[in-house]
Design brief:
Blueprint (H helix, E strand, L loop, with lengths): L1 E9 L6 E4 L1 H11 L3 E8 L4 E7 L2 H14 L18 H10 L2 E7 L2 E2 L5 E7 L6 E9 L1
Antiparallel strand pairs: 1-8, 2-7, 3-5, 3-8, 4-7, 5-6
């Protein structure tokens, strides 16, 4: 069995943001030489997410607006977690909604996506470096 482990470092310039990482993951799949297997992409921080959806700017905007309505950042005093001196309780909740990781099948050496699918990194408490784990295994 072949495997490849890689860490991507993300630093989103704002508090929240979405980064399409599909092209980077496709390069890593090619480097792995795995023809049939699985690719795990995992946000390694509790206020960030990895998810799959359409690469359409309006949809990404809608996600941002929707998440902010579900778990608004302010007023920060509304969250018990923030009583610890943090101000990111909303980011933990947003991550819970959007998910921690994705697993994509690799078929004939390529990510086996459905129509329009792309892999995104979602940041909910930005302005600092965070890590994404990519683990590719197969034959």
């Amino acid at each position: 069995m072949k495997s490849l482990t890689q860490h991507l470092w993300m630093e989103v310039p704002g508090r929240r943001g979405f980064v399409n990482i599909t092209d980077t993951i496709e390069v890593l799949v090619a480097q792995s030489h795995v023809q049939e297997g699985l690719c795990l992409v995992n946000a390694m921080h509790i206020t960030a997410s990895v998810f799959i959806n359409d690469a359409e700017e309006g949809l990404l905007h809608d996600y941002d607006v929707w998440l902010e309505k579900l778990a608004p950042h302010a007023p920060t005093k509304n969250y018990h977690h923030n009583l610890t001196g943090e101000d990111n309780a909303d980011a933990h909740l947003k991550r819970q909604i959007m998910g921690r990781e994705v697993v994509v099948a690799i078929t004939k050496g390529k990510l086996d996506f459905g129509p329009w699918e792309q892999i995104f990194y979602g940041e909910f408490d930005g302005l600092r470096r965070k890590r994404v784990l990519v683990k590719i295994i197969g034959e």
